[in-house]
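Predicting holo structure, adenosine-2'-5'-diphosphate bound.
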Amino acid sequence: DQEAKTEFPIPANVFAEKVVSVQHYTDRLFKFRITRPASFRFRSGEFVMIGLPNAEKPVFRAYSVASPSWDEELEFFSIKVPNGPLTEHLQKIQSGDTVLMRKKPTGTLVNDALIPGKRLYMFSTGTGVAPFASLIRDPETYEKFEEVILTQTCREVNELTYAKELVEEVINDPLVGELAAGKLRLHTAATREPYPCQERITTLIENGKLFEDLGVPRLDPAVDRGMICGSMEMINDTKAILEKHGLEEGSNASPSTFVVERAFVG
Ligand code: A2P
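Done. Tokens:
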């Protein structure tokens, strides 16, 4: 089996990195960390294309780097798609295995694509929390915003564990903790199991419950900024609501008051 895995040559323009650790959260979600190539630079919030050396032409999928840009390793948070061409194999990786990564990072969920503001909202569902896992560990996020509010909505309560543990870790981190203390807050919801908050983020924004829970005013384009990462439907619905509140979609070329990542959808 080990031999079968190394049978194919590593394609050009990819890094071949080693798995450092794997943690499974549920039967649908897991995290893995790989070694970081010395020459690899990215901005917190960007994504890369990930594959496995198990075919002549490996299947690549977009993965947000969940670790911050200063980290010595690279972290990814993944779904396990039944019969998914990449994740049916990727979910079986173990420490020491090889993972392929295309060399060029890209993405719009970056601090540079937002104009300055007071409060940054990160709206995520499921593995859409990954780019925010990077951004909430980046000191720059706290230099730019007075308040950072991460929201994650999942179907099941256990799917929220990654984000809960992460926020706890960030607040206790010797490097970022001091910056994040009092600024970083997590709002979680589970839609298909009993949970204190059992509604979609779109409903929570529209009925104002999100803001009541947080004790902050409703969305105001003068001070609030947004980042959205989730399924295509979630992105479109959340985007429409932000626009209704007067926020405008921005990009790297034209920064504005909210940004969206469409790379993972489909
Ligand atoms: P729901 O359980 O009501 O479908 P998925 O795994 O399908 O991407 O869903 C992840 C989470 O995102 C679920 O809690 C789901 O809620 C929620 N969700 C799905 N579609 C939307 C949408 N269009 N707007 C807001 N939340 C959504």
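The mean pLDDT is 95.
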